[in-house]
Amino acid sequence: MAIMFAVVLGLRAWTSASAAPAAPAGESTIGDFVWRDQNANGVQDVGEVGINGVRVELWQDDGDGVFEPAQDTFIEFLLTGDDASTPGIEAGWYQFDVTFGGEQLYWVTIPDSQFAPGAPLANHVFTSGNTIEPNPALVFSPNIIDNIDTIDFGYAPISMTVGKTVYAGHNNGASCPGGELVTGGAGTNVTYCFVVTHTGTAGSITNVQLSDATLGNIDQ
């Protein structure tokens, strides 16, 4: 699931781009951190580290207030890492150089690819940020120069265990368990019962998809 948001920095001070003062190109910034929210409280606590290598994308809205990759303009992407401008070593930092003022509207998004198996955010769920889903708030900054360092993405690791038990007979969709445990007998009708246990730190997990190497996708 791609995460998208923008930030309100003030009320509109003019009604057209032509009435706005000239904004220095590329002298404003949007950014900050993508971090691992170990306790899933939505706050970057002491000791919680950033996540490196996450692709963060910057888009410019076409003026209709709706995030539409086919119509909006992709500007660039960054991979999170260390902030070279500070003496310490951080993880999970990113910062875009942008132009504010007038009618410039931006979107910051982490694409779905970052949650795929093997990607930096695999097995993580979103816990915080300036996000209103499923319709992100489209906002802007009327200021000529702004440095926004509050666009943080917190993600909590999830962990699950899956248990599978095989019972004799077919219970026609009745709730598990059912019948006797299978102890043998090729060709016997059986019922599979699956128990998914959430052992991570995040809150409730929904829309869990189960797949078995032999059975394929499993209806819930």
Tell me the layout of helices and strands.
Layout lengths: L2 E3 L22 E9 L18 E6 L12 E7 L13 E6 L7 E5 L13 E3 L20 E2 L4 E5 L2 E9 L21 E9 L11 E3 L3 E3 L2
Parallel strand pairs: 2-8, 2-9
Antiparallel strand pairs: 1-6, 2-5, 3-4, 3-6, 7-9, 10-11, 12-13
Structure description:
The chain has two domains: 1-157, Sandwich (Immunoglobulin-like); 160-218, no CATH class. By secondary structure, it is mostly beta strands. The chain starts with a strand and ends with a strand. It contains no helices and 13 strands. Strands 2, 5, 7, 8 and 9 form a five-stranded mixed β-sheet that branches. The chain has a four-stranded antiparallel β-sheet with strand order 1-6-3-4, with no helix packed on it.
Short description:
With 220 residues, this protein is an all-beta fold. It has strands spanning 3-5, 28-36, 55-60, 73-79, 93-98, 106-110, 124-126, 147-148, 153-157, 160-168, 190-198, 210-212, 216-218. The protein has no helices and 13 strands.
